[in-house]
Amino acid sequence: MITPNGKTIYIVCPVGNAVIPVNTHTGKSGRRIPVGDFPGPIAVTPDGKTVFVGNRGSASVTPISTAGNRAGKAIPVGRFPQAIAVTPNGNTALVANNVDNSVTPVNTRTRKAGPAIPVGGGPFAIAITPNGKTAYVANDVSKSVTPINVITRQPGPAIGVGLGPTWIAITPDGKTAYVANSGDGHVDAHTVTPIRTATDKAGLGIPIGINAYFILIAR
Questions:
Q1: Are 184 and 212 in contact (CB under 8 A)?
Q2: pLDDT band at residue 187 under the 50/70/90 scheme
Q3: Are strands 191-196 and 176-181 parallel, antiparallel or unpaired?
Q4: Which of 13, 79, 140, 141 could form a disulfide with 99 if both were Cys (CB 3.0 to 4.6 A apart)?
Q5: 50 vs 177: CA distance, rounded Å
Q6: β-pairing, 60-65 with 75-76?
Q7: Within 13 A of 101's CA, how many CA atoms are on the CB side?
Q8: Residue 158 and residue 77: Cα distance in Å, rounded?
Q9: Cβ 107 vs Cβ 121: under 8 Å
């Protein structure tokens, strides 16, 4: 994860339960920042002041202040936090809990977690529209995507996609979300599903012929 100003890269070390900051100008690493058990997902606020790290082994999120690279008190969330996304206004971090089939909203200022939002089976990835109104959660097990109204924190009806959806990317204009379907081991099921955000309707899967696991959109 790179901070918005491009000055620091934060590298997650799952085995060592730590995050290591690297200065992009000097190429030198800073001191090890201890976090929770089996860290994985990481996200940074738009102002670059706070990094949030999901601790999959301890059902928590650790906030790190980038000014001093110091970890704050761990925030309890659901089991196995697999993905984190921060709203464009920086007010909320949404944490996808893979085992609990839920998303936990975290107030980035108070660092308090709100009530969990139910989603589909095995939430694996989450992305938020540029206007900050809707979050889309890829549910790996239930082969679906759950749209969440970020303001009301209410989930919408599940959107059916391909096998094993593991990643989501949204176009800069916010009109389309593209979902990478890993195929869940089925060679002929590797597709990308487009979802029109205005209607939350999925289009036909786009076959790609290889394992679709991650997806990015060039600006």
A1: no
A2: low
A3: antiparallel
A4: 79
A5: 26
A6: antiparallel
A7: 12
A8: 22
A9: no
**pLDDT category of residue 10 using cuts at 50, 70 and 90:** very high
What percent of the chain stands above pLDDT 90?
88
pTM: 0.94
What's the chain look like in SS3? CECCCCCEEEEEECCCCEEEEEECCCCCECCCEECCCCEEEEEECCCCCEEEEEECCCCEEEEEECCCCEECCCEECCCCEEEEEECCCCCEEEEEECCCCEEEEEECCCCEECCCEECCCCEEEEEECCCCCEEEEEECCCCEEEEEECCCCEECCCEECCCCEEEEEECCCCCEEEEEECHHHCHHHCEEEEEECCCCEECCCEECCCCCCCCCCCC
Q: Output the pLDDT for position 213.
A: 77
Contacts of 78 (CB under 8 A, 6+ apart): 59, 95, 97, 99, 100, 102, 104, 116
Contact 12, 42 (CB under 8 A): yes
Identify whether the C-beta of residue 105 lies closer than 8 Å to the C-beta of residue 86.
no
218 against 91, higher pLDDT: 91
Every domain of the chain and the residues it spans? 119-219
